[in-house]
Structures are given as structure tokens and as C-alpha cells.
Write a structure and sequence with these properties.
Rossmann fold, single chain, 2 domains, two-stranded antiparallel ribbon, seven-stranded mixed beta sheet, about 220 residues, alpha/beta
Length: about 220
């Protein structure tokens, strides 16, 4: 499809299926945001500097274990590993991203990024499969996997009961970026879910840093 055809296609969607058009535009925007700011020799990463800083804050405070659902190339996993002292469990089936099919993680990048951290374990599978036989304790979980509403809701429901009391749960892509002008607004699935669970009495809302929304389990 050439440029003119693509433009005509988007104009048709504007009138026939505006929701589909918005999804396409969101995907294009996020791809641009990432490619300009987060691509390097050790792979692709989504997190802003502000998000990395807050992830490192909670990773450094974890006393039992850290679970990351959605590892991609392990760049933010590596950042957490720089300050963590507990086991880090990365979970990712390494399939095309739910919001951008051209994006996929690479196991070689993950293992290379985490080669310095002896307490890292990688599970190459879907989170809903891994949780069935889960046996490790953890007090910090970062949910950044499938961003469709039903999928992120399932991750929350599957893993929240396993999180230690007073543990931290973070949702990525669930709010607008504020540290960088005119950038990503967050994905509808995680955004909808965090707004719902702010009313959950088993959770205490802590803070939002760019697209990261942080809660504590009561």
C-alpha cells in the first residue's frame, strides 16, 4: 500500500470506523516515540526516564522478589537489576506486541541484559500459563504484558492474590506521559483497569509517574 492509498484508507476509517483509526494512530505514535528515544544495541525499551527512576525506587525496596510481566528486550529489567537484591522473575512469550505487531522481544537481548544478575529467572511463556504452577514469593510486580483490557485484567486477577501483603503493583501504559511534551497518552486497556481498581478496598493508590500507576496491596 503506497502513501496515497494509506492516506485514503485512513480517511475512510475516519467516517466508517473512527475507533479503528484511533488504534492505528496510537500505534504509529508509540512506535515513533520508542524508536526516537529508546532503541539501542541492547534492544528496545518503552520506559521514560521518569518511569525507570520510579521502577528502580520500588525495585530497591523489594525484600522478597520482583515479577515483571512483559519483558520485551529486558532493558528496564536491567535497570531494576542494578538496584535490586532479590530474585527477579521475567515473564514473556516473546510474541508480537498486542498494540504493535511489528514489535517483539528477543531472548538473546534479555539474557545479555541480565547476564550480570545471578538471581534472574526468565519464563518464555504466557503469564496465565506460568501462574498455574507459581511457587515463588514476591512483593513487587510490574504488569506490562498484553495491553488489551481483558488480558491486563486477567493478569491483575491472576497475580494479585499471590502478591505479598503491603507489596507493590505497577501498571505500565495506564496514564499519559507528562515528563515529555506531546507524547504517549497510554493504552485504553490498562487505563480503564487502573481507574476501576482505584475503588478496590484491597488496594491503596500510591502515585502515577508518566504512564506508570502504582498501588500497594493492603
Amino acid at each position: 500500500m503506497n502513501f496515497i492509498s494509506k492516506t485514503n484508507y485512513k480517511l475512510k476509517l475516519l467516517f466508517k470506523d473512527p475507533k479503528k483509526l484511533m488504534k492505528i494512530l496510537f500505534s504509529m505514535l508509540k512506535t515513533l516515540f520508542i524508536s526516537n528515544k529508546n532503541v539501542s544495541i541492547d534492544g528496545v525499551g518503552f520506559a521514560t526516564d521518569a518511569e525507570v527512576a520510579i521502577l528502580k525506587k520500588y525495585a530497591s525496596q523489594a525484600q522478597i522478589g520482583i515479577v515483571e510481566i512483559g519483558v520485551l528486550d529486558g532493558k528496564t529489567t536491567k535497570e531494576m537489576g542494578k538496584v535490586a537484591s532479590v530474585p527477579i522473575y521475567g515473564i514473556d512469550p516473546l510474541i508480537p506486541d498486542s498494540m504493535n505487531k511489528r514489535l517483539i522481544g528477543h531472548e538473546k537481548h534479555i539474557l545479555n541484559n541480565m547476564s550480570f544478575y545471578p538471581k534472574f529467572i526468565f519464563f518464555k511463556d504466557y503469564s496465565y500459563n506460568i501462574v498455574k504452577n507459581w511457587q515463588y514469593k514476591f512483593d513487587f510486580i510490574w504488569i506490562d504484558g498484553d495491553h488489551r483490557y481483558e488480558a491486563v485484567k486477567r493478569d491483575f486477577e491472576d497475580w494479585f492474590s499471590l502478591l505479598e501483603p503491603n507489596g507493590i503493583i505497577a501498571f505500565h501504559d495506564s496514564a499519559p506521559v507528562t515528563s515529555i511534551p506531546d507524547s504517549f497518552e497510554g493504552w485504553p486497556g490498562p487505563t480503564k483497569l487502573v481507574n476501576e481498581i482505584k475503588e478496590n478496598r484491597d488496594l491503596k493508590y500510591i502515585e502515577t509517574i508518566d504512564t506508570l500507576t502504582i498501588f500497594k496491596k493492603l
